[in-house]
Structures are given as structure tokens and as C-alpha cells.
């Protein structure tokens, strides 16, 4: 039929197309679709006629929705005030460079001056080192049982969720610093006993991930945010800028007793070496250690050249002397983790033990030479609205560590490195929230726990 010049394959293909077209024409799909569309339109028309229009009142209040479902940070709004919109504006950006140590509440200047004067005075007295040998467990438990929480030792110090804390080593005055998600740093003189003992400063634009008083000069408070490492110097009433970077910082620790240099971890997995004695605000070295994410770093208490890095599923020991830009290999890797690791810290005296917190709901501790103890079951499912748990060693004891708890009643737990639960700090009348971040005084029986609303509890 005029297709004699086509090949056998092409003639067969045209024949199949023709037969398929005849088959679909016999089904009359187009006519059926048209009838179905007419029927659907007619039903919708009848339903519209039967439906009564809803009466809308001008003063009808807007429907409230859960802030948790909207994934919006909870805002504390005083009574009798207009609530802030759910889409909160970004926090104001802090200027680059040194900042004056001026509190957010500048009205009570005399009380702020008293707080800073107290900090300066207690920093001049050298704290005595505590006995941190092998503990008498029974005696240690008795000392833990003697620590209590009272209403006057509870205070809201910062506005947002607490992400880090530090405690001054003074033996005469309890001075606590807390950093929150908004970049605020709160100072609380617990020994003051009045409402004027706590004040808030704003040295950062982003959440404060880590804080330490300088081990050689506690008049210096170093705080690390996502983009900056600052030093609050109370003698000059200024927050100096030590380091600034676009590679989001997550944690830091001092490489020397004089606190002149530090190892800083980054959320992208790398680590950086910062030296305060060099000019400029850039790290001296940025090293790729092969992690996809690095959450905490911790320097060995005896051999300062070694540091511990904890990442997504990695816990490794590195030698800072051999760090280079790329191709770094760990000295040792601590096994046993298959999910995200929140923290890892050396024991305070010998550094022969490491305690870790993992998202697999386990606490693990590794002894020297890589020997691991059986992990301890522990609910670490804090969710997105609570700061993740970090198990910290009691600086006065080589074999005991503390960690927050999701258990009811709310409590802070103390474990021995054998996995034995030694004590639970709790008070059903005063403690009704989860204390994710905790800090222990280096020489006194003092524990401070913080929650996600900026409130501190001192046992």
C-alpha cells in the first residue's frame, strides 16, 4: 500500500500501531471520560447548593497552633503583654572585635559593678588543688548525699536554652557562668543570695557551645560560639575576640596550662589550633581529621600533646604535634559506637579512662590500652528541644562521672566507672525539669545543673 520501500521491521511496526489504534477506539475511552466529567461537575454543583455558608465573625480569635509542631523555638512572654509572632526575627548581630563588658540590664549598674568586683577579687586567690586519688566509694557517696537543693539556689540566669556552663574555682564564693542558644552569657554570684546577683551579657551572635575559666587566670572567661572565640577579661571589663571563622565552631580545650593555645573543633569535622600570642583573629592551623562532624575535643590531663575528638560515630585520639592540613591519622580509635556520639572526655587525673555518650541510649567508658567495659543502658533521647547530654567526670574523683537523666522524678545521676549508679541528685519540690548540662566544682562539693529554659540549680 505505498510502503513497499520500507523494511520488514518498519512494516511490522506500522501494522502494530494501526491495530492498537483500532483497539483503543473500540473501547471508547474519550466518550467515557467526558461522561464521567459531566457527572462529577453535576454532583459538585448539587453539593455547593446544599452547603450553608459559614458565618464569619469579625472578632473571632485566630486558631492557635502548637509551637512545637510549627518548629519554632519557645518564647517566654510575660503576662499581660502582646505575644511575639511565631516567626521570630533573627537575633541582633554582635559587632566584630572587642566588646565592652556591659550587661543587658544596664539599669542596675551598681549591682553589676559589685558582681564584676567579686569576680576580680576571688580570681586573685589561688585555689587549692583537691585530693583526686582513688576514692573511698562509701565516703564519696556520703558526701554526695550531703549535697541538697533549695529554692534560693535556683535562678533563671539566661533567657534561652543553656548550651554550656563553667564554674569559678574559688573556694569562698560560688560564681557560675552559663551560655545559651541566643549568644548570651549569664553570670550568677550564688553566694550573694539576692536577686541582684545574676546579670546577662551579649558577647556572641550565636549559641555559646563551650565555656571555660582560664586555668592559670580565672579572671578570664573564654566562651566559644559558632563563629567566634572570645575572652571575657574582668580586669579590663572587655570581651576580647581571640578567633573568628566562618567554619562553625563546636567545642574547645586548652593545650597548655597557661591557656595561651587551644584546640577547637568545627561542626564540619575539622579541628583548628588557635594561639592567643599571635596577631590576628584567624586560626594558626586548620586540619582535616577525617570526621564528617566533630562535636567535642578534650586534651589529655597529663600529656597535653594528645587530644580526644568525638564525631558522628568516631572517637579518636590525635597528636597535635603532627597535625597537618590533610591526611591526618589517629593514634588510636575507640570502638563500640554505631550512632551519633554527643561527647567524649578523658578522666581528670590520669586520663586513662574515657567516658562517652551515644545516641544508641548507652554510656560507655574505655580504659587504657583500648579495653572497653560493657556499656550501660541510659536513655539519651533528649529530642530537638533539649540540649544533648554530656557525661562529665567529677574533677575530684578519677573513677566517677555525672550525667543528666530523662527519668522521673527529674534527676542528675552519678555513676562509677564500673557502671554502678552511686547517687541521684533530685528534689521533687524544686527540680521539675531535665538538666542536660552540668558542671562540678573542682575542689568543693558543689554541683550546678541547667535546663532548657535558662534556669540553674545548685546542689
Automatic annotation (TrEMBL):
- What does UniProt give as GO cellular component? nucleus
* Basic and acidic residues bias spans: 54-63
Q: Could you tell me where the Basic residues compositional bias lies?
A: 43-53
The superkingdom of the source organism is Eukaryota
> Which InterPro entries does the protein's record reference?
WD40/YVTN_repeat-like_dom_sf, WD40_repeat_dom_sf, WD40_rpt, WD_repeat_DNA-damage-binding
In this chain, the stretch annotated as Disordered covers 38-63
Q: Which GO MF terms are attached to this record?
A: DNA binding
Coiled-coil ranges from the UniProt annotation:
none
Which keywords, in A-to-Z order, does the entry hold?
Repeat, WD repeat
Its GO biological process annotations read: regulation of DNA damage checkpoint
Q: What does this protein do?
A: Specifically binds 5-hydroxymethylcytosine (5hmC), suggesting that it acts as a specific reader of 5hmC.
| Assembly behavior | Interacts with CUL4A and/or CUL4B.
Which family is this protein grouped under?
Answer: Belongs to the WD repeat DDB2/WDR76 family.
What's the protein called, per UniProt?
WD repeat-containing protein 76
Source organism of this protein record? Regulus satrapa
Amino acid at each position: 500500500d505505498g510502503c513497499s520501500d520500507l523494511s520488514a521491521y518498519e512494516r511490522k511496526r506500522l501494522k502494530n500501531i494501526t491495530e492498537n489504534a483500532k483497539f483503543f477506539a473500540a473501547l471508547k475511552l474519550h466518550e467515557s471520560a467526558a461522561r464521567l466529567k459531566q457527572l462529577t461537575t453535576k454532583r459538585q454543583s448539587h453539593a455547593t447548593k446544599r452547603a450553608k455558608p459559614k458565618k464569619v465573625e469579625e472578632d473571632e480569635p485566630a486558631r492557635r497552633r502548637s509551637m512545637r509542631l510549627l518548629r519554632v523555638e519557645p518564647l517566654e512572654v510575660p503576662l499581660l503583654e502582646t505575644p511575639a509572632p511565631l516567626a521570630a526575627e533573627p537575633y541582633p548581630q554582635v559587632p566584630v572585635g572587642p566588646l565592652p563588658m556591659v550587661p543587658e540590664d544596664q539599669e542596675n549598674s551598681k549591682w553589676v559593678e559589685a558582681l564584676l568586683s567579686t569576680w576580680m577579687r576571688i580570681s586573685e586567690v589561688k585555689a587549692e588543688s583537691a585530693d583526686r586519688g582513688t576514692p573511698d566509694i562509701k565516703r564519696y557517696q556520703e558526701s554526695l548525699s550531703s549535697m541538697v537543693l533549695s529554692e534560693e539556689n535556683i535562678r533563671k540566669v539566661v533567657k534561652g536554652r543553656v548550651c554550656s556552663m563553667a564554674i569559678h574555682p574559688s573556694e569562698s564564693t560560688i560564681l557560675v557562668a552559663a551560655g545559651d542558644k541566643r549568644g548570651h552569657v549569664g553570670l550568677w554570684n550564688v553566694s550573694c543570695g539576692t536577686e541582684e546577683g545574676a546579670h546577662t551579657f551579649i558577647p556572641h551572635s550565636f549559641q555559646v557551645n563551650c565555656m571555660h575559666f582560664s586555668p592559670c587566670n580565672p579572671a578570664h572567661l573564654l566562651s566559644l560560639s559558632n563563629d567566634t572565640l572570645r575572652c571575657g577579661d574582668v580586669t579590663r571589663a572587655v570581651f576580647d575576640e581571640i578567633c573568628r571563622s566562618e567554619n562553625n565552631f563546636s567545642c574547645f580545650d586548652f593545650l597548655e596550662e597557661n591557656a595561651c593555645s587551644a584546640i577547637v573543633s568545627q561542626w564540619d569535622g575539622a579541628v583548628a589550633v588557635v594561639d592567643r600570642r599571635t596577631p590576628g583573629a584567624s586560626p594558626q592551623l586548620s586540619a582535616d581529621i577525617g570526621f564528617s562532624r566533630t562535636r567535642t575535643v578534650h586534651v589529655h590531663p597529663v600529656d597535653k600533646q594528645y587530644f580526644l575528638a568525638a564525631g558522628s560515630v568516631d572517637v579518636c585520639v590525635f597528636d597535635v604535634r603532627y597535625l597537618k592540613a590533610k591526611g591526618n591519622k589517629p593514634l588510636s580509635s575507640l570502638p563500640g559506637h554505631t550512632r551519633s556520639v554527643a561527647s567524649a572526655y578523658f578522666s581528670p587525673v590520669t586520663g586513662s579512662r574515657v567516658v562517652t555518650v551515644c545516641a544508641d541510649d548507652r554510656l560507655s567508658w574505655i580504659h587504657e590500652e583500648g579495653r572497653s567495659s560493657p556499656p550501660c543502658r541510659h536513655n539519651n533521647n533528649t529530642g530537638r528541644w533539649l540540649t544533648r547530654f554530656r557525661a562529665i567526670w567529677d574533677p575530684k574523683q578519677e573513677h566517677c562521672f555525672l550525667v543528666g537523666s530523662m527519668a522521673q522524678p527529674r534527676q542528675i545521676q552519678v555513676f562509677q566507672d564500673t557502671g554502678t549508679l552511686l547517687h541521684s541528685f533530685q528534689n521533687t519540690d524544686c527540680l521539675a525539669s531535665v538538666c542536660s548540662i552540668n558542671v562540678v566544682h573542682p575542689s568543693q562539693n558543689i554541683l550546678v545543673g541547667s535546663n532548657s529554659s535558662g534556669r540553674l540549680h545548685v546542689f
